[in-house]
Amino acid sequence: MRNWNFNLTRTTLLVGGTAALLLAAVPLQAQRGGGRAAPPNAKASAPIDLTGYWVSVITEDWRYRMVTPTKGDYQSVPMTQESRRIADMWDPAKDEASGNQCKSYGAPALWRVPGRVHITWKDDETLQAEVDTGTQTRLFHFGDWKPAGGEASWQGDSVATWEGRGAGRGGAGGGPGGPGGPPRSGSLKVVTTHLKSGYLRKNGVPYSEDANLTEYYDMAKEKNGDQWMVITVVVTDPKYLTQPFVVSSQFKKQADATGWDPTPCSSRW
Question: For the chain, how many structural domains are there in total?
Answer without folding.
Answer: 1
